[in-house]
Amino acid sequence: MEMIMRFVIFLAVFVCPVVPLISTPYSPDFHFSILEEQPIGTYVGRIQGTACPTNKIYSLFPASTPFAINQNGGITTTQLLDREKSSIYRLMVQEKCGGTTVYFTVYISILDVNDNAPIFFKSHDETLLSVNSPVGTIVYTSIAYDVDTGVNSQIQYSLQQLDPPLFAINPYTGMITLSAPMNADFRSRTLTIIATDGGIPPLSNKMTLQIHITVP
Fold it and tell me: How confident is the model at residue 163 (pLDDT cuts 50, 70, 90)?
């Protein structure tokens, strides 16, 4: 019995020292944000690493990302950033200090600037409208989109009006309606439709609509 107890105690002491060897030090994540299209070399943020008393050596992975890190842990841009191509980057930072290596996960969000004007699905279109159509008749619905985000992507529609004005447009839906009665002398009208986004400064684009007036 005494021999068995000695064997068990010896086995336990032998196994325990192996456990710490499988651990790898990782830090909490870092989150930064930066506006797109900022000059190369723009400061993004700084890694607050470990309280290591000796000189630290930082490395950034993958190396192909448009960012660099200096030996103070400061991250800067190396390229112009385009949110429409990539809106967030996930990076790995390695910190070496003496014989210790620590890894940090860094998320960099790219914020939108108003760098894209609205785009119509068609730059020109045509439609038919009877001369006897009553006021309020739906003539056409224009559709545009904007690849920016937030208020920069919000579109309002307007018309470059005729003289006299015959048509109205809903600023939010792009729906064009007849706003005044027509007479038999009307044959064709060309409207210029304008889509303007909500950015500062706002950007806009145009399309033309050819309206052919039909007579019974």
Answer: confident
